[in-house]
Specification:
- With 654 residues, the protein is an alpha/beta fold.
- The chain folds into 5 domains: 35-60 and 150-182; 64-143, Signal recognition particle alu RNA binding heterodimer, srp9/1; 207-368, P-loop containing nucleotide triphosphate hydrolases (Rossmann fold); 373-444, Helicase, Ruva Protein, domain 3 (Orthogonal Bundle); 455-649, Methane Monooxygenase Hydroxylase, Chain G, domain 1 (Up-down Bundle), CATH 1.20.58.
- Helix content is 46%, strand content 12%.
- The chain is built from 21 helices and 15 strands.
- It has helices spanning 38-62, 71-79, 129-135, 150-182, 208-222, 224-228, 248-259, 278-292, 320-333, 355-358, 374-384, 396-401, 408-424, 432-444, 455-474, 509-530, 538-553, 587-614, 616-629, 634-640, 645-649; strands at 2-4, 67-68, 83-89, 92-103, 112-120, 139-143, 190-191, 237-241, 263-267, 296-301, 341-347, 365-368, 481-485, 495-498, 631-633.
- Strands 7-9-10-11-8-12 form a 6-stranded mixed sheet.
- A hairpin with a 2-residue loop joins strand 3 (83-89) and strand 4.
- Helix 11 (374-384) packs across helix 13 (408-424).
- The longest helix has 33 residues, at 150-182.
- It is elongated, with a radius of gyration of 42 Å.
- 32% of the residues are buried.
C-alpha cells in the first residue's frame, strides 16, 4: 500500500514554532498543599503534638520516685521492725522506714540507700499481712484503687477528634460548595503575564500574511492617532483560521507579547456549564473586566465550541450554547458600543460558525494560517534546531523539501523524535540518519517486531510493494519514489513511500490518473505474478475509490459527465440537519456516477497491469531485492529497472 506525504491528514493541536523562548526555571518537585487541605494539615499537627505531650506526661507520671523493692524484702523489713508506716492502694504498697537502709532494689544493680519504698502484693494474696502489720505497730493507711489512666484518655480522645475532624471537613466542603455556586458565573479568563513568558513575532516562522495583519493590530494599539487621523477604526475582531498545528495559539501569544496592553485569554469551553445562563453571565463578566482595562485584547481559543450555527439541532434554540453565543454577539456589536476591546479567536472549523459571528462589525477579519511552504518549513526547522546539537551532515533544506504537508507542530515533533532516537543510540549529535528514521516513524509508524511471516507471505508482500514501486518509478506524472519496504510498520505490512518534489496546490488529470495506477499496482502485481488476491490491497482500493469519486463529483474529470459536477449543496451535518437535506440529482444519475467511478478505477487497474507486464523482469528484480534486504531506496529501484534518475524523476509542471 502507498504512503504519500502530500495526502497526510493532520489532527494535532497547535504548537509553538520557536526554540529561542526563555526557559522557565524548574522548581522543586515539592508543591504546597491546596488551600482546602491546609486546615486539615494544621489539625493533624495539633493532634500529634497533644498525643506526644500526653504520652510523655504519662511516662513521667508513672515513674515512682520511691525505691522499688521485692515483697520478700518488704516482709523482712516488717519482721525486723524497720517500717514506720505504709500506704495501701489496690495491690500496691508504699511505705516509709524508721531509718534509711542500704540494700539492692529491683531497678538497680548496685546497693542503694533509701528511706521510702514501694512494692506489690503477690497475685495469690497475703491474708495474714494486716495482722502482721498491727503486730509490729505499723501505721496503715488505705486508699481506693484509682481508675485514672492517660491511655484511657487517649482511647476516648482519638475517636472524638476523628469525629470532630470529619464534622469540620463536612462543614468546610459545604462552604466551598456554596462559594462555588456563588462564583459560578464569574469570569474565568486569565490575564497574560509577560514577566513569566513573552513571545514576539520573531518567534513565529513563516505566516508572513498573518503576521502582517496582526502587526497592524499591534500598531493601532500602540499608536492609535496615526490611524484615527485618516478616519480609520480598529477592527473589532480577528479570527485566526487554519488546520490544527499551524500556530494559531502561538500567533495569539505573539500578539500578547507585542501589544503591551491587557490581554485576557480563555477557551471557548470555559463558557459552558450545566446550569442555564452561566455561559452568558461569564461573557458579560469577561467584557466588563476587559472594558475596565481598555484598550485591551480578549482571546477565545477553540471558538467553534461556543460559536456553532444556531438552530442546527433538534432541541430548538434555547440551549445553553445558543444563549452564550447570543450574549457574545451582543457584547461584540450590540446596542451598547464596544469601545477599546478587540476580540481575537482561533478555530479550525470556520465552516460551522454562525454567520452572525462572521459578519463585519464582529469578526471583521479572518486571518488564514495554512500549512507552511517549503521555505517556511525550513525556517521552522531552524528555530526548533537552535537548542539541538545537529551533525554537520544535516541539511535542513533537504528535510524541509521532504516533509510536504507537515505543520509546525509536526516539524517540532520530527526533531524531538530525532533527538530521542539519538539519545537512545548514545550519540552526542543528531544526524541525518536519526531525522530520516524519525520521519519514517512519523509517516509510516513504528516497526512491528516479533511478527513471524512465512516465506510465501514475504513473497506476496515483496511483489505487492514491488508493484507499487515499479509504477511509481516508471510513470511520468507520479510523485518520485523515496523508498519501499516490506518491514511491517504501524497497521501496514509493507509501505511504498513517495515524496513530492514540491508542494502541490493544483492537481492535473494526468497526475491523478498516475496516482490511481500506482494505488492499483499492488493488486495488479499479485494477480499478474502470483495469480491471487490478498487483503493487503484494502487501503489501496479504498483510496482509489475515494479519489475517483472526487474526480467525478467534484472536479469534473469524467468523460460521461464532462464539465458537470452532479453534487448537491454541501453542508455540515449536525444532529437533525441531515434529515431535510436534499440531493440535487436523481437515482439514475447516482447509478451513472457509480458506474463512472468503477470505469475509472478499472482503467487504472488495466493500465497498472499492462505497465507491470511490460516491466516484468524489473519487477522480479525489485521483489528479489526486497526479499533480501527488506528495504530499498527509490534510487536503487530505478537502477534495477534500468532507468536514468533524470528520466524517473521527471514531472511536468502543474
Amino acid at each position: 500500500m502507498t504512503e504519500e506525504a502530500s495526502d497526510r491528514g493532520r489532527s494535532k493541536g497547535g504548537e509553538r514554532h520557536d526554540a529561542g523562548e526563555k526557559r522557565v526555571e524548574r522548581k522543586s518537585p515539592h508543591r504546597p498543599p491546596p488551600p482546602a487541605l491546609r486546615p486539615l494539615r494544621h489539625l493533624l499537627w495539633i493532634f500529634l503534638a497533644v498525643f506526644l505531650a500526653m504520652w510523655v506526661w504519662s511516662v513521667v507520671a508513672e515513674r515512682d520516685p520511691w525505691a522499688s523493692i521485692s515483697y520478700t524484702t518488704f516482709r523482712t523489713h516488717l519482721v525486723e521492725n524497720r517500717i514506720e508506716r505504709v500506704e495501701v492502694e489496690g495491690d500496691r504498697i508504699r511505705g516509709e522506714l524508721v531509718e534509711p537502709v542500704q540494700t539492692r532494689v529491683l531497678d538497680e544493680e548496685d546497693p542503694v540507700t533509701y528511706e521510702r519504698f514501694v512494692t506489690h502484693v503477690p497475685g495469690f494474696g497475703d491474708e495474714g499481712l494486716l495482722e502482721l502489720l498491727e503486730a509490729h505497730g505499723v501505721e496503715v493507711e488505705t486508699r481506693p484503687e484509682s481508675l485514672f489512666s492517660w491511655w484511657m484518655i487517649l482511647f476516648y480522645l482519638v475517636p472524638f477528634l476523628l469525629l470532630l475532624l470529619l464534622f469540620f471537613l463536612i462543614v468546610r466542603g459545604g462552604q466551598a460548595q456554596g462559594q462555588r455556586m456563588m462564583s459560578i458565573g464569574e469570569n474565568r479568563a486569565r490575564p497574560y503575564d509577560r514577566s513569566k513568558q513573552q513571545t514576539t513575532f520573531a518567534d513565529v516562522a513563516g505566516q508572513r500574511g498573518a503576521k502582517q495583519e496582526l502587526e497592524e493590530l499591534v500598531a493601532f494599539l500602540k499608536e492609535p492617532s496615526r490611524f484615527e487621523e485618516l478616519g480609520g477604526e480598529i477592527p473589532r475582531g480577528f479570527l485566526l483560521v487554519g488546520p490544527p498545528g499551524t500556530g494559531k495559539t502561538l500567533m495569539a501569544r505573539a500578539v500578547a507579547g507585542e501589544a503591551g496592553v491587557p490581554f485576557f485569554h480563555m477557551s471557548g469551553s470555559d463558557f459552558m456549564e450545566m446550569l442555564v445562563g452561566v455561559g452568558a453571565a461569564r461573557v458579560r463578566k469577561l467584557f466588563e473586566e476587559a472594558k475596565k482595562e481598555a484598550p485591551g485584547i480578549v482571546f477565545i481559543d477553540e471558538l467553534d465550541s461556543v460559536g456553532r450555527k444556531r438552530g442546527a439541532g433538534l432541541g430548538g434554540g434555547h440551549d445553553e450554547r445558543e444563549q452564550t453565543l447570543n450574549q457574545l454577539l451582543s457584547e461584540m456589536d450590540g446596542f451598547e458600543p464596544n469601545e477599546g476591546v478587540v476580540v481575537m479567536a482561533a478555530t479550525n472549523r470556520p465552516d460551522i460558525l454562525d454567520p452572525a459571528l462572521l459578519r463585519p462589525g464582529r469578526f471583521d477579519r479572518q486571518v488564514t494560517m495554512g500549512l507552511p511552504t517549503r521555505e517556511d518549513r525550513e525556517a521552522i526547522l531552524r528555530i526548533h534546531a537552535k537548542r539541538k546539537p545537529l551533525a554537520p551532515d544535516v541539511d535542513l533544506d533537504k528535510f524541509a523539501g521532504g516533509t510536504p504537508g507537515f505543520s509546525g507542530a509536526d516539524l517540532r515533533n520530527l526533531l524531538n523524535e530525532a533527538a530521542l532516537l539519538a539519545a537512545r543510540k548514545e550519540r552526542t549529535e543528531i544526524g541525518s540518519a536519526e531525522i530520516e528514521e524519525a520521519r519514517d516513524k512519523v509517516l509510516l509508524g513504528l516497526e512491528r517486531e516479533g511478527l513471524a511471516l512465512t516465506e510465501d507471505e514475504r513473497q506476496l508482500l515483496a511483489y505487492h510493494e514491488g508493484g507499487h514501486a515499479v509504477l511509481a518509478a516508471v510513470l511520468p506524472h507520479a510523485d518520485p519514489l523515496h523508498k519501499v519496504t516490506i518491514v511491517p510498520r504501524g497497521r501496514a505490512m509493507g509501505v511504498t513511500q513517495q515524496l513530492p518534489e514540491r508542494d502541490r496546490y493544483v492537481f492535473s488529470r494526468d497526475l491523478l490518473e498516475d496516482r490511481l495506477a500506482v494505488l492499483m499496482g499492488g493488486r495488479a502485481s499479485e494477480e499478474l505474478v502470483l495469480d491471487t488476491m490478498t487483503s493487503g490491497a484494502e487501503d489501496d482500493l479504498r483510496q482509489a475509490s475515494k479519489l475517483a469519486r472526487r474526480m467525478v463529483l467534484s472536479w469534473g474529470m469524467s468523460e460521461r459527465f464532462g464539465r458537470v459536477a452532479p453534487v448537491g449543496e454541501q453542508e455540515e451535518v449536525f444532529l437533525g440537519q441531515d434529515i431535510a437535506q436534499k440531493r440535487e440529482y436523481s437515482d439514475s444519475t447516482a447509478r451513472e456516477v457509480d458506474q463512472e467511478i468503477r470505469r475509472i478505477v478499472e482503467a487504472a487497474y488495466e493500465r497498472a497491469r499492462s505497465t507491470l507486464q511490460h516491466h516484468r523482469a524489473g519487477l522480479d528484480r525489485v521483489a528479489e531485492a526486497l526479499l533480501e534486504d527488506e528495504e530499498i531506496s527509490g534510487e536503487r529501484v530505478r537502477r534495477l529497472l534500468g532507468l536514468e534518475p533524470e528520466e524517473a524523476q521527471a514531472s511536468p509542471a502543474v
